[in-house]
Each structure stands twice: as structure tokens, then as C-alpha cells.
Write a structure and sequence with these properties.
It is a single chain. Strand 28 and strand 29 form a beta hairpin. Helix 13 crosses helix 14 and helix 23 runs parallel beside helix 25. The chain is of the alpha/beta class and 757 residues long. The structure holds shikimate-3-phosphate.
Length: 757
């Protein structure tokens, strides 16, 4: 494979963007061959003089400039980009890859699609979200793209090689890669970039045409300068942009006009106090939104830990009520978001497969989104997610590229453990980090067996993250896992894909098998023992892209199963839930406790069983939870403990020490919360006993979820039976697995308010 610094680059258009690309690349790789082509001789002479380019050609000599370029970057406004594509088709050599930088994609893509498929398959549309109101080569800066986002809108037939080359250019310039569909890009940009420019131009114009415009400008100050800065942008380029993105711009302008019209009417007709209150509410919301945006996008790390602790759920009824006569009934039909385990795996396997994997039902929660970001950093183009759909353009088994920074896994033990197996087998260095909770979780369970396979991994004291991984050649092992962990099993299977010989893993108790099912879906040969306790594979085969429909997450559905199970008169249907036999411990346990659950319309979707789950309230009684069910319900215990607290008699759980090393120590966090709401329980090193009471109204209390999403949601559900409100602290991480929990809860009759403190 050619090193990127040897790739011959032709930049067509030496303005702000083209010039910044040339300067940035030369700064990183002084020997990178760069040719520029423009119609402005003075700009080209300046670029030659500062050695940002090696050679220049007038635009009339485009054919000569193209002759042996490997990568052609069209750095022109949208209309000019569309216009030059047919010329490039006729003069580029048949191996050169092309990309552009236009901020409207639909118009450019429509022009590309009129050309021969062979040519358009080499054209990768792109758009750097970087720029300035200044224009021209002299305003260009080598660092313009550092830390900025680049949006690719790949064409259906773009090859992964073409994507890889374009990605390599932008990552060399220090940018982060994103990808979107063309319509989504144009809508988003119409709102976030094009509309503000339109308004800036038009406010300057409106003011200039006022009768006393001289006066206005004489007294104008910082506010006017700030607001109108965008009106100094390149007029040619921006008029082009609106011609090219008329429809989306008109839509968002329509929404703006409606809002302005409402403001005008209010100014003309609302009584003073009403107007004051309405405007104050509007301005406060807008101020909060803007500040949150600035914090998240311009200072994300400084605000991360503050944000994590800042979300509080106020759940339950504000009026104290001790009787059981007026308990709320939980009723309705909902579809909870996609399965977290399967969502992570769809990205991982899609990334190393050959071809384009299409995923639907993807969980757009923070954990899975961190996995998407990690694979983008590893050089994979991932389009979306948009409404749960994404396309992963696989780079093949050996196509990942070295990350430039530590890969941030957020709150997700699954992502860190699975990626450790994949990365241990790569021929580059990498580092895996995470948030406060993840940094405390044990990684020795993966590091030790990976070392047995030949991996070179350093963990922190006590086997904690960050994990530093160096290149290694792995060999297969036979490994009997000391605990029933799907994460450990999956980690070793991923490493095994690259190992010499066979990797065989056996588990002491059955745990989730999504990895095995997905590998089969990607056409990878795998052997499983009849009882499912041993799995083996041989390294070296290829994975073939596939289609994945992610079912709804039974772990998220659990909160509503329990909500219905603890409130008389409840009746809930949960749609399209994954009922993989290795995940249905919660159904089995609730049924043993007396719950009335039916599994309706079972079917298979892309290798995973799926069904509707219907639950009607029935009285619960305490049980001793069978140990065999523990790995099958491992994430569901926080919610199950709430069900136990409303059951008749005691519920006992032993043999569940794994709960101590989840996102929090779930035995301790739940015992502490249960005590605060007045439930009698006894904690053991490996379990808990809970004294249930079918007549219970829990005491109103403040509960610390300890930043654990499932603890927060379990107590939010418990609030259905609270005698007053619960104040549940530290709930931001609910967004890791169930981003619309509060909204869906309210459709079923749960009262949860969110406070940002
Ligand atoms: C998961 C496996 C389980 C589970 C986690 C997701 C997975 O962890 O708790 O939420 O996707 O493989 P262990 O395998 O460590 O028990």
C-alpha cells in the first residue's frame, strides 16, 4: 500500500480551503507532491513562493495537471464543482480518486451521478466544517482543519480504497471524520450554516436601506459586528450555495419567518407583562441551548464530568399518598430502543467486513455512538446513524488504520473489552480509555487471556483502564473462562479472527451469544458444542458484509415489564423485543414470581429471535432466584429488585458477585437505595435478600444512582409505588443505553421530570 505522504495530490481551486489543504499537508509531510490548478495567477505564484505547492497549472491546462494525480481535491464552490466534474471525467487518469469540499452535496452528487459509474465510484463527496469569513489563498492556514469535522456523503458505489485515501488526507490534516446521507447533510447545513449566513447578509442589507442608515452604522457597536460577521464571507460562494441548496434553505427559512412573524404579532398586540414573560422564556431557553452547545462542542472535556453529575430525575407523585387504592396503572404499547450489545457488535463486525453493512434499529445511545466514533478514528467510514439506520463501509480484516489519539469508550465495558481483543491483533499501537466508572472496572479478565494469545497490553494498577496495546502476532488458545462473561468470550473470539490456529473458549454458565450469531451472519466459520458451552474458530477467514436489523433491547424493555408488574390494572405491550434464549432470564424470573407475561408473534430477524412481550398485572411472590438464570438476566437485577420489594415474601439471590463490577457495584447501590425508600434487605458478598410487601408505598427519598443508568431507571420505575416524589441523582448516563427513557415512560403513565443542576 502506498504511504499517504507519497500520494500525488492535485488541488483544483487555490482559495481559502484549497490553500489550507496544501499548507496543512506540506506542514505534516514536506515531501508530499502537491500540484495546484487555478485561474488566479497571483494566488498560484504566492503558493509557489511559499512552497505550499510544487507545481501550478492554469485552469486551461487542467488535463496536464491531472495527468498523474492520485488524489484530486476539487476546492471550488458548489456550482463550479458540479460544472468541472465532466471535464475531470475526461482528463483524469483511471486510477485517480476525487473528492470535493462543497457545502451543498445534493447538487454536486446529482452532477456526479450523470457521469459514468466507473468515474463516479472514484468520487467521494466531502465537506469540511471549517472556514472563515475571509477568503482567498492569502487567508489560508495549515491548521484550519485541526480538530474540525469533515462530513463525507459517500456514493453507494464508492470503493473502500477511495474512502480510505480521502479519509487519510483529512486525518493527516488533523480533522475528525463523520459521514451522512446527502439529504441529511443538506438539511442540517441549511439550518446550521446556510440560514445564519442568509440572515447575516439580509440584516446588513435591511439596515443599509433604512432611511437613516448612516446614523445606524455610526452608532453600531459590538453586537452588530458579532451578528453580521458572516456577511463578510465570499459573496460568490454564498450565492452559489443558495442556488445549489434552494429547497432545504427555503424550508428552514420558512420556519424562521413563521417564528419572526409570531414575534412581530406579539410585539404589536401582547400586553406588556405577557410580552415580557413570553420573551423572557424564549430568550432564557435560547441562551441555555446556546450555552449547552458551546460547552459540548467547544469545550467538551472540561464540562464532561460536570455534565455527568448534573441530571436529576424527579419521579413519582408530587402529592403524598400512602394508600394503595390510587396506584397509577401502566398502560400502552411501545417500542424501546435497539439492543446495546448487538448495536456495538454491528459496528465492530461491519467495520472489518468486506463490503457495505446496512444496519437498522441501531441504538443511538452514548455508548454505541462512542463505538461509532472509535471506528471512524480507526479509518472506517460510517454513514449515520439517521433514525436508527447506518451504513458501515467495511475496510476488511486488515484494513483498520492506526488511531491518532486514545479511543474513548465512555461508560461501556462491552466496547472496551471487545475492542481490546480486536486491537490486540492489529499491527499498530492503540489506547483505550473511558469515563470515571469505566476506569474503575476490571480488565484483567481480558488482558490475561489475551496475553496468553501473545498480546502486548499494559493496564493500570489492579488491571484497570486505560489499556495500552502494542502490535503483536497472536496464536489461538484453549481457554476456560472463570466467569460466564459474554464480553470476555467475544473479546477472545475477535482476537481469534486474527490468531494463528484455533481459539476455543468454554463458559462455566451459558451467557449471551450475539457474537457467535453475528459471526455466522457475516459468513465466518464457527463451531459450537451442542450444549452451547464451547465455541471455537480458526483465524484467517474473511467476513462478508451483511444486513442487520437490531431488535429492541430486552434490558430496556425490562423497566416497563417491571413497571407493569408492580401496579395493579397495568397492561403493556413491548414491540419487537429481542428474546434470544441467552437474554430471557428476566422473563423466566418474573414468571417464577407470578407475573403474567406472554410472548407473542415470535419470529427470527437476521439470526436473532424477536417477539412482542405482553404483560398484564398479576400479584408477585418472592422466590429464590435460580443461579442458572443469573447470566441470562445479568443486567436486569436492579429492576428485578424493585419487583421483589413489592412481592409477597422474601426474594433471595446468591452467586451474583458479577453485579459488583458492573457500571456501579449494583448490589451495594441497590441495597443503599432500597434502604432509603424503606425496603428491608440484607446484602451478601454475592447477593441480596429483599423482604417484599405487596401493600408497600415506598418512602419519598433522595437516591444516588451512582451514575449507573440501570440503577437510575430502576428507581424511576419504583416511584410508581412511592408515597411521594423520589429525587434520583446522577442520571445523565441513562443516555448511554436508553436515550428516550423519560419520553417513553410518560407515554405509559410514569411521571418523571428532568432537572439540570
Ligand atoms: C454484555 C455482556 C454482559 C452485560 C453487558 C453487555 C455484552 O457483561 O452485563 O451489559 O454485550 O457482551 P459480561 O459479559 O461481562 O457479564
Amino acid at each position: 500500500m502506498t504511504r499517504f505522504e507519497d500520494v500525488k495530490i492535485l488541488i483544483v481551486g487555490l482559495g481559502l480551503i484549497g490553500g489550507s489543504i496544501a499548507r496543512g499537508l506540506k506542514r505534516k509531510n514536506p515531501n508530499q507532491p502537491i500540484i495546484a490548478c487555478d485561474c488566479d495567477r497571483a494566488q498560484m505564484a504566492a503558493a509557489l513562493a511559499s512552497q505550499d505547492v510544487d507545481q501550478v497549472y492554469d485552469i486551461d491546462a487542467l488535463s496536464a495537471a491531472c495527468a498523474d494525480a492520485d488524489l484530486v481535491v476539487i476546492a471550488l464552490p458548489p456550482l463550479a464543482t458540479a460544472a468541472i466534474l465532466p471535464r475531470l471525467e475526461s482528463c483524469c487518469n483511471e486510477r485517480s480518486v476525487l473528492t470535493d469540499v462543497a457545502s451543498v452535496k445534493g447538487y454536486v452528487v446529482a452532477a456526479a451521478e450523470k457521469l459514468a459509474t466507473e468515474f463516479s465510484s472514484r468520487f467521494v463527496p466531502g465537506h469540511p466544517i471549517a472556514g472563515s469569513e475571509k477568503s482567498g489563498y492569502l487567508a489560508s492556514k495549515g491548521e484550519l482543519f485541526e480538530g474540525r469535522n469533515i462530513i463525507l456523503t459517500p456514493l453507494k458505489n464508492n470503493s473502500s480504497e477511495a474512502l480510505r485515501l480521502v479519509t487519510a488526507m483529512w486525518t493527516t490534516l488533523g480533522a475528525n471524520m463523520l459521514a451522512m446521507s446527502v439529504p441529511h447533510h443538506d438539511e442540517v447545513l441549511a439550518a446550521t450554516s446556510h440560514l445564519p449566513h442568509l440572515l447575516a447578509y439580509s440584516i446588513v442589507d435591511v439596515l443599509a436601506k433604512q432611511e437613516r442608515s448612516g446614523d445606524i452604522f455610526r452608532y453600531a457597536a459590538g453586537g452588530f459586528a458579532d451578528f453580521s460577521r458572516l456577511a463578510s464571507s465570499d459573496a460568490r460562494m454564498w450565492s452559489d450555495i443558495f442556488v445549489a441548496n434552494r429547497a432545504a434553505s427555503a424550508d428552514v427559512l420558512g420556519a424562521m419567518i413563521t417564528a419572526l412573524q409570531a414575534l412581530k404579532t406579539a410585539l404589536e398586540t401582547s400586553p406588556d407583562t405577557r410580552l415580557g414573560t413570553d420573551l423572557h422564556a424564549l430568550f432564557s431557553d435560547a441562551k441555555e441551548t446556546r450555552e449547552a452547545f458551546i460547552n459540548t462542542h467547544f469545550n467538551p472535556t472540561a464540562n464532561k464530568s460536570m455534565n455527568e453529575k448534573s441530571v436529576v430525575f424527579i419521579a413519582g407523585q408530587s402529592i403524598a399518598d400512602q394508600s394503595c387504592a390510587n396506584l397509577p396503572q401502566v398502560k400502552g404499547r411501545v417500542r424501546v430502543p435497539g439492543d446495546k450489545s448487538i448495536s456495538h457488535r454491528s459496528i465492530i463486525f461491519g467495520a472489518i467486513a468486506e463490503g457495505r453493512t446496512e444496519v437498522s434499529g441501531f441504538l443511538e445511545g452514548e455508548d454505541a455512538l462512542n463505538t461509532v466514533a472509535a471506528f471512524r478514528e480507526l479509518g472506517v467510514t460510517i454513514v449515520g446513524p439517521e433514525n436508527g439506520k447506518l451504513s458501515i463501509i467495511g475496510v476488511g480484516r486488515d484494513g483498520l488504520s492506526a488511531p491518532r489519539k486514545p479511543l474513548y469508550m465512555g461508560n461501556s465495558g462491552t466496547a472496551m473489552r471487545l475492542l481490546s481483543g480486536l486491537l490486540a491483533a492489529q499491527q499498530f499501537d492503540s489506547e483505550l480509555t473511558g469515563d470515571e466508572s469505566l476506569t474503575k472496572r476490571p480488565m484483567a479478565r481480558v488482558v490475561e487471556p489475551l496475553r496468553l494469545m501473545g498480546a502486548t497490553i499494559d493496564a493500570q494498577a489492579g488491571g484497570r483502564p486505560p489499556l495500552k496495546i502494542a502490535p503483536a502476532k497472536l496464536h489461538g488458545i484453549r481457554y476456560a473462562m472463570p466467569m460466564a462473561s459474554a464480553q470476555v468470550k467475544s473479546c477472545l473470539l475477535l482476537a481469534g479472527l486474527y490468531a494463528d490456529g484455533v481459539t476455543e473458549i468454554s463458559e462455566p454458565g451459558i451467557c449471551r451469544d450475539h457474537t457467535e450469531r453475528m459471526l455466522e451472519g457475516f459468513g465466518y466459520p464457527l463451531t459450537r458444542s451442542a450444549d452451547g458451552s464451547t465455541v471455537s474458530l480458526e483465524g484467517g477467514h474473511a467476513l462478508k458484509a451483511t444486513t442487520i436489523d437490531v431488535p429492541s433491547d430486552i434490558s430496556s424493555a425490562t423497566f416497563f415489564l417491571v413497571a407493569a408488574a408492580i401496579c395493579p390494572g397495568s397492561d403493556v405491550v413491548l414491540e419487537h423485543v429481542g428474546i434470544n434464549p441467552t437474554r430471557i432470564g428476566v422473563i423466566n424470573i418474573l414468571k417464577l414470581m407470578g407475573a403474567d407475561i406472554s410472548v407473542l408473534n415470535p419470529r427470527s430477524v437476521g439470526g436473532e429471535p424477536v417477539a412482542e412481550l405482553a404483560i398484564k398485572y398479576a400479584p408477585l411472590h418472592g422466590i429464590t432466584i435460580p443461579e442458572s438464570q443469573i447470566p441470562l438476566a445479568i443486567d436486569e437485577f436492579p429492576a428485578l429488585f424493585i419487583a421483589a420489594a413489592t412481592a409477597k415474601g422474601e426474594t433471595h439471590l446468591r452467586g451474583a458477585e458479577e453485579l459488583r463490577v458492573k457500571e456501579s457495584d449494583r448490589l451495594a447501590a441497590m441495597a443503599a437505595g432500597l434502604e432509603r425508600i424503606g425496603v428491608d434487605c440484607e446484602m451478601f458478598p454475592d447477593g441480596i435478600s429483599i423482604a417484599g410487601d405487596p401493600e408497600v408505598r415506598f418512602a419519598s427519598a433522595e437516591i444516588d444512582s451512582e451514575g449507573d443508568h440501570r440503577i437510575a431507571m430502576a428507581f424511576a420505575v419504583a416511584s410508581l409505588r412511592a408515597a411521594g416524589e423520589f429525587r434520583i441523582l446522577n442520571c445523565a448516563n441513562v443516555a448511554t443505553s436508553f436515550p428516550n427513557f423519560v419520553e417513553l415512560s410518560s407515554t405509559l403513565g410514569l411521571e418523571i421530570r428532568v432537572e439540570h443542576v
